[in-house]
Structure formats: C-alpha cells, structure tokens
Specification:
- By secondary structure, this protein is an alpha+beta fold.
- The chain has 2 helices and 8 strands.
- Strand 5 and strand 6 form a beta hairpin.
- The longest helix is centred in the first third of the chain and has 24 residues.
- The radius of gyration is 22 Å and the shape is globular.
- The termini are far apart.
Length: 154
C-alpha cells in the first residue's frame, strides 16, 4: 500500500512541476518595432515573408522600384544582426488598411495586433490586403504570424 502511495505522490508532484514550467515559458514577450511602409500591391504571395538576407531585401525593393511609377525611389534598408524585417499581409475588414499597434512573440509565433483605418493614399474601395514592411528591433526567428484585430473604441 505504501508503494502505491509513493507512486501516486511522485506522479502528482511530477505533473505539477511540468505545469509550472509550461506556464513560465508560454509568456508572450512584447517586441519593439517600426512600421516602415504600407504598399497597396503584392510583394509576396505568402501571408508573411521574413527578410533575413540582403539579397531578399534587394529583390523586394526591385519590385517596389518597378511598381513605383517614376516617383522618387526609396532607399534600400540594410540587413544587420540587430534587427529583423518582415512583410505581412493582414486580411482587411471594414477599411482599406490597418495600423499595427503591438507585437508579441511566443515560441516562434509572432502575434500582431492591428486596428482598421482608412489610408488616404489607398483607394477607398480597395479590398486588396496591404503589404506592410515592418522592422523588428531585434533578431527573432518567426515560424508563424497571427494577426489579431483590436476592438474599436469608437
């Protein structure tokens, strides 16, 4: 009987310690970022693209410069070891663009909180998801991006 009691006690304590470890690692870390530019055309076929090499950045800006229509060319950002660039394509709701409000990361999943807004530089009837170039102010590894709309306070 004592052996069963020790086995159950051991299993109970083991489960408790695993639960505590899981909760400490599932904390979402807030990420500092810069919202560089919103493009009204597609730069990638995927929902997001991590730009981790200068060659990828040059390819993206080659597309931007081709679609710029003769206007002044934007400078090409340099890829460094201290930051990460990412392009996201959030689905639109009742607006023609979104404002990126907050970012957190948890186990390689980047959670991006956005708010709907009407961009005067885009067509008011546009339903094309904007391609948003973001500079994350630290080097991170992203496997998945989840876009979440914040509730409107109006």
């Amino acid at each position: 009987m004592k052996i069963h009691l020790y086995v159950y006690l051991f299993l109970f304590l083991n489960c408790q310690s695993q639960s505590a470890d899981h909760n400490t690692f599932s904390q979402k870390a807030e990420i500092q970022f810069e919202d560089n530019y919103h493009y009204p055309y597609s730069l990638t076929e995927k929902n997001f693209l991590v730009i981790d090499t200068q060659d990828k950045m040059d390819q993206i800006y080659s597309t931007i410069h081709k679609k710029n229509g003769g206007r002044r060319l934007a400078p090409i950002p340099a890829i460094t070891d201290e930051d990460t660039f990412i392009i996201i394509k959030p689905a639109l709701r009742n607006s023609n663009d979104v404002s990126v409000e907050k970012m957190t990361i948890d186990n390689g999943t980047l959670y991006i909180k956005v708010k709907a807004f009407n961009n005067p530089n885009f067509s008011q009837t546009s339903r094309t998801s904007p391609n948003i170039l973001l500079k994350i102010l630290k080097k991170i590894s992203v496997k998945k991006v989840v876009t979440q709309y914040l509730k409107s306070t109006s």
